[in-house]
Amino acid sequence: MDFDDDAQLDASQVEDSRGMPMGGMALGGGAVGVIGLIVALIFGVNPGHIVGGGDGGGSAPSSGSLSSKCRTGADADQSEDCRIVGVVNSVQAYWKKEFADSGRDYTVAPTRLFSGSTSTACGSATAEVGPFYCPGDKRVYLDLGFFQDLHDKFGAKGGPFAQAYVVAHEYGHHVQDALGTMRKVGGSRQGASSGSVRLELQADCYAGVWAKHAVQTGFFSRPFTSTDITDALDAAGSVGDDRIQRQAQGRADPETFTHGTSAQRQHWFSTGYDSGGPSRCDTFSGGI
């Protein structure tokens, strides 16, 4: 994964609230952690379902420090913070063009970096919830410490492109929000064929679609390598419901699945990447 050294980064798309106090926690980290490890640690859509309603409180975040150090693709190759900025820029550049080609307007959604805990329009959450997208305020929330957890707790190989996959997946939820797809979930939030699982697998597929076209956004110097794609598939596989549940409780319970199995997550990312077409990401028709 190699950024174009001359690519111009837009740090305004990433807000930095790390180290800022965030009030309004409804539950402590311990309670969230138990649920997170078994059900919703990875790539949740709405943390409000886990920790209660949000108050939107806390200090106003800023992108100032990122703007001063994250200016070009060369910066993104040297700094994790700037790499996140570069990936966010690329993912949104792709979807902006895709929406425009379909006669739609794409609304830019910021990523907010936080540490420890954060308050959102969907509820208050700790870092243990993992990365998530909040449709209430149309933001992606990310604690960068999650990437170490992905390696240490779930055995993923990690790497820069595994991080990119996580970010692209969350923006897949923003796309679903914009297209009205989230309404298809309704009350079907658990089970092997539930709306929640289908939503998550579609977001995996959208991440693969972006990966196929990422170099065309102008932020990368060359297409991703087979090693990059392997890292993404490894990350997707490490956070399947079946694998997480077996690790946490010794068995998998399909009736409580919310995100899909390891094999399904890898399959749908590959479907998006191999086809390069969002239309191939219809996880709501037929089997998955």
Question: What can be said about this structure in brief?
Answer:
With 288 residues, the chain is α/β, with parallel strands linked by helices. Helices cover 46% and strands 7% of the residues.
| Total beta strand runs | 6
- Give helix % range: 40-55%
Number of domains: 1
N-to-C order of helices and strands: EHHHHHEEEEEHHHHHH
Gyration radius, to the nearest Å?
17 Å
Tally of contiguous helical segments? 11
Low-pLDDT ranges: 23-58
**What distance lies between the first and last C-alpha atoms, to the nearest angstrom?**
30 Å
The backbone outline, from C-alpha atoms, is globular
| Fraction of residues in β-strands | 5-15%
Describe the strand arrangement of the main beta sheet, using strand numbers. 1-2-6-5
Q: Report the major sheet.
A: 4 strands, mixed
Derived from helix and strand composition plus strand pairing, the structural class reads: alpha/beta
The average pLDDT score comes to 86
Task: Write up this protein.
The structure is a single chain. With 288 residues, the chain is of the alpha/beta class. The chain has one domain. It has eleven helices and six strands. The strands form two sheets. It has a four-stranded mixed β-sheet. Strands 3-4 form a two-stranded antiparallel sheet. A hairpin with a 2-residue loop joins strand 3 and strand 4. Residues 23-58 have low confidence and may be disordered.
Compile the SSE list and pairings.
Layout: E1 14-16, H1 29-40, H2 48-51, H3 64-69, H4 73-78, H5 80-101, E2 111-113, E3 117-120, E4 123-126, E5 132-134, E6 139-142, H6 146-152, H7 160-179, H8 195-213, H9 226-238, H10 241-249, H11 262-275
Parallel strand pairs: 1-2, 2-6
Antiparallel strand pairs: 3-4, 5-6
Helix pairs in contact: 5-7, 7-8, 7-9, 8-11, 9-11
